[in-house]
Design brief:
Four copies of one chain form a homotetramer. In chain A, helix 1 packs antiparallel against helix 2 and helix 4 packs across helix 6. Chain A is elongated. Chain A has two domains: about 80 residues; about 130 residues, Roll (Urate Oxidase). Chain A is an alpha+beta fold. Chain A is built from six helices and nine strands, in the order E-E-H-H-E-E-E-H-E-H-E-H-H-E-E. In chain A, strand 8 and strand 9 form a beta hairpin. Helix content of chain A is about 25%, strand content about 40%. The longest helix of chain A is centred in the last third of the chain and has 14 residues. The mean pLDDT of chain A is about 95. In chain A, strands 1, 2, 3, 4, 5, 6, 7, 8 and 9 form a nine-stranded antiparallel beta sheet that branches. The interface between A and B is large, with 39 and 39 residues. Strand 1 of chain A pairs antiparallel with strand 9 of chain D, so a sheet runs across the interface.
């Protein structure tokens, strides 16, 4: 059968990325306890396409995902990308793995356990050098400092999302970024809370009012002090309970 | 050209609904001030398909939407469905029109105006008789009564959505259902608020704590008293600010 | 601490459903090979609320999910709902578990294996009796019979989704419904295909052109013959490649 | 009332962007015929926040949107951003306006008209200089060249999306980018087609098979020749009808 994809192209246009997008796959990832966590991922895997070739070979991307599906931990990403480059005869390879990551948390007073889900993403590229971005999304509660200050009682508050992306020169765990973000909000969120926990969280959150601007800065401070972090981007979105839109703040910094 | 859709079918299976789904269209709808509001809609239009026929003619649905696009108000729905039945030689026709509806609201203290969007839906069917359901989604703030009661200060609160569906024997305006839902929450939401408004809303909401269960019941009470309402369904979802999941309550009642 | 939820309510309005919505949880489900499949679920768990009580106790729902998280197979649903009823002192309990289910499939010619994801849902209720609906979503290819017939060559085709819901009086596996839907489309979908597979699928699909109406009926036929099926609902949506909207057909039948 | 937002901040962290996100608003935009098109938009409006200040004033963003809501055409963006900078005492302002844009199209043979929706975005920034990116999303049909070549008959095809972003040094209309993308696919899409149109499109598409790579390149070629274009990014996604995932290709180029 004719291999149209390998035929030569006359248009003289190099493509930055070609490949498969939105592959929903069951994967396993090593967590901080060095045990495997099973989860579902949405995966994009791309290579560059030199101007000489008409198309890429989409099935090879899936063959590689198949081989690594039982361990898609951070430590395997470089190998996947090198294998992808070789298989597709490309100079660059790029992968994005979006997944739900579950952490067993204890409630603050009653100490009962439940799983909280954090949407995470591995974003990695390989050409001559390897580049890796870890993305962690952490839901947090935000109590509005302005509302608290100007009101005789109460303060509007709401669920928000803190998205942290980092480049690192040493291992940083998802759990570490989660803790930084949860410390920066008015309160962390929990799946299971008894009433004594709810009382504690309500009062703690009211004692720590935060604008989206505050949460971004209070995440940035420990990242600034951390020698492993070489670049970060922080975006915080607050689903305002008094508006039908969101408040937003962000910062991006290379160190 | 052969008309395959009109050919006879041997499988002896009547289909309840066939047609077009997810048609994104610019429409106009009459509002309470009898002026036309321009908005965008997502439209489904279906008929039944008797077991004798293999398929329906999808283009005719679009031709009908085209004719009515400049006025898709409630009063035109019956005509659209009758025309659809005739055009497709069907016994039943059914339409769903999902659209953003904008209401110009004044903030509670400073009285400045801004538009709030309410996702609404017209759901109408015509066979021997005409059936119409009006759906209105109203974002509201909910202050948790339990959190307020057990905490020394503060109370977790959040944005929620109150969905009301009604069948009626007389005209009920979207604006009326919006007001019922906004009265039933701890506070309405606004797009534009100055600080004096934020103070008012914070205190007002704290003075009116509501569970999702309360909001459903406080919407149901005025619907129960309203002689125009013959059936209702109320669903309230609260995007809990202390959890990463929602609280939910609902009731459906024929009167 | 005062238990506000348990206090009496004066509004005389019984609520059909109250509880937790959108809980994202890691679960395990037994598959046809009797081995556990790990996946992620989005869970709703509700009870009714008699008119005498002001609210439900949201944390108890999560405690129950926690206990069953390691085995949320079909066979456990009745126990979960009975436990929920007892824990919340309710007459009705209702659960919805939406999850990605992965099946290892072999490509039609080269016989290489890859995982395909099928979005499934368990919908179960318990009052005096137990009710269970199995929902399976199966992506299929649809080649348009009209386009094939009227054109000198080619035929537009596209990805579609066949949603089957069934009530049963005997065990029906997800895999069985997947196979029925895949047989009813022009071709099944695969995550990994080599060129010989692509040739086979292209020709096979062209030889089996199907309208959405055909797919619904060709799913209904084997369900009609199956004595285990007591009720079914079939909805097929085709993401038309020549339109920016979808074609739709459905049937619901109690037997 | 104390103005907490204006108080000084000690954390020494400048924020790139703070403001409102996801404001759903009814807007009007001038189209190529110089008439106003009414549509709905989802708007983000941000400024930078110097390290000296604790927060921004969210209500001022909405006041500005209110003033420009009746004409949010391209020509007004610079004024909006300058006004936002002044109102918030900021150095940078940034706006993103995502909206559905409708074009009345004639079908290729029968010449009947219907509206097609194209999701567009204005992305504009103002600091010392003004930067503007026009984004247009164009649904197209893609017939797979490999499938056509290796199969005795038929060819799998599907709906895809071509996203074009451009920076320009002269006016480029949305309609121009739509036409470039529609020429680059195997066939444009239409909301309303009669059978003679469907025959034409089926044969035309089969005669013009395109990989995602081809569509990207065939969009890039006219952009390369256009002296008004100073930068472009093209991303094409094909919702493969034989897979449950997508094929993807992209290129970004500054000229």
């Amino acid at each position: 059968m004719r291999d149209i994809q390998s035929e030569s192209d006359y248009r003289e246009i190099h493509l930055d990325r070609v490949g498969v997008n939105g592959v929903r796959y069951p994967i396993r990832i090593k967590d901080r306890q060095d045990t495997f966590q099973h989860t579902n991922a949405l995966i994009n895997l791309y290579v560059n396409l030199p101007k000489e070739f008409r198309g890429t070979h989409m099935s090879r991307f899936i063959e590689i995902l198949n081989r690594y599906q039982s361990d898609l931990s951070y430590s395997k990403l470089k190998n996947i990308l090198i294998e992808t480059k070789e298989s597709l005869k490309a100079n660059d390879a790029h992968i994005e793995i979006l997944f739900a990551y579950f952490i067993l948390k204890s409630s603050p007073v009653s100490n009962i356990q439940s799983y909280m889900d954090y949407t995470c993403q591995f974003i990695a590229s390989q050409n001559d050098r390897f580049d890796f971005i870890l993305e962690v999304n952490v839901p947090v509660q935000l109590v509005c400092p302005c509302s608290k200050e100007i009101s005789r009682y109460g303060a509007h508050n709401q669920r928000g999302n803190a998205k942290i992306k980092t480049r690192m020169n040493g291992m940083v765990w998802i759990e570490e970024l989660v803790q930084i973000a949860e410390n920066a909000g008015s309160s962390p969120l929990f799946t299971l809370l008894k009433r004594e926990d709810e009382k504690y969280i309500t009062e703690h959150a009211y004692d720590h009012p935060k604008f989206v601007e505050d949460v971004v800065r209070d995440i940035a401070l420990p990242l600034e002090r951390d020698k492993r972090i070489t670049w970060y981007q922080i975006e915080v979105l607050s689903q305002e309970s008094i508006h039908n839109h969101n408040a937003y703040a962000s910062v991006t910094k290379k160190r």
